[in-house]
Amino acid sequence: MDEKSHPDDSALDDTEEPLTELAQLDLEASAGFWMRVRNKIERRVATAQVMSFTWNLPKLIFLEFLEIAFSIFPPAKDRKGEPK
Questions:
Q1: pLDDT digits (tens, 9 = 90+) for 49-76
Q2: Among 43, 56, 70, 84, which residue is least crowded by beta carbons within 10 Å?
Q3: DSSP letter, residue 4
């Protein structure tokens, strides 16, 4: 199959002109757009921090209770049998 026989071949020849016109239409994004993007990013970061905190909190509480239990009931003797 020959690419020259493509029915839209005439449209492909004139593609350079619209691209140069589009390059001249370079517009800066509005402040509202950047504010929406920033808010979405901040929401995702806040959600990730909350999920991380709720995932690690039970482990930290368990370790604190374990530390309290070991401080209340210290080992009575060392390995050598001497009182500590």
A1: 999 999 999 999 999 999 999 888 877 6
A2: 84
A3: G
Residue 73 and residue 67 in contact, taking contact as beta carbons nearer than 8 Å: no
Angle made by CA atoms 28, 34, 38, in degrees to the nearest 5: 155
Which positions ≥6 away from 6 have C-beta within 8 Å?
12
Token reading at 6: 């493509």
Q: How far apart are alpha carbons 43 and 41 in whole angstroms?
A: 5
- Considering the entire predicted model, what is its pTM? 0.46
Distance CA 30, CA 9 (A): 38
Distance CA 21, CA 39 (A): 33
